[in-house]
Amino acid sequence: MTAPDIIHHLRLLPHPEGGYYRETYRSAAGLRTAEGQPRSVSTAIYYLLENEDKSHFHRIKSDELWFFHQGQTLEIVVLDGPEPTTILLGSDFSRGEVPQAVIPAHAWFAARLRHPAGFALVSCTVAPGFDFADFELAQRATLTAEFPHLAALIEQFT
């Protein structure tokens, strides 16, 4: 299948951070965050990036797990300390790829295809569940002020 076929078949929509998505699960069970906000225990989405699409630097207030389904290797860049960490999400274990990855709560992260041709289809789960109130899209100037030595990387993903 091609990326347009998958987007159509799974009824994916454009995502504000880049790429395409559709929520597939929202737990009926709830909880309250440390700030007292109600959230679902967990949520899940399909997420697809194609060609030169990027998931721009953003962060959320919950842990997020990414699961590779098919397509090209996805490069996830995480800023959770002074130096970036790169996770290769894919199915070629001999090349250091992994089929799932955890992005810690509050960490800045972004993603793109390792080689910008084709697509990658993944699923993401968030616990406590995702809410756009917990989503922050990075502003280039703000993130560069926090990580001035990573200005070139930040420019690629903002």
In short:
Residues 5-138 form the DUF985 domain. This protein has 158 residues and is mainly beta. 13% of the residues lie in helices and 46% in strands.
Report on this model:
- With 158 residues, this protein is mostly beta strands.
- It has a single domain, classed as Jelly Rolls, CATH 2.60.120.10.
- Helices cover 13% and strands 46% of the residues.
- It is built from 3 helices and 13 strands.
- It has helices spanning 3-9, 140-146, 151-156; strands at residues 13-14, 20-26, 30-32, 38-40, 43-50, 54-60, 63-71, 74-79, 85-89, 100-103, 108-113, 119-127, 135-137.
- Strands 1-2-5-12-7-10 form a 6-stranded antiparallel β-sheet, with no helix packed on it. A 5-stranded antiparallel β-sheet has the order 9-8-11-6-13, with no helix packed on it.
- The radius of gyration is 15 Å and the shape is globular.
- It starts with a helix and ends with a helix.
- The relative contact order is 0.23.
- The model has no long low-confidence stretch (mean pLDDT 96).
- This is Cupin domain-containing protein.
- InterPro entries: Cupin_DUF985, RmlC-like_jellyroll, RmlC_Cupin_sf, YML079W-like.
- Residues 5-138 form the DUF985 domain.
- Pfam families: Cupin_5.
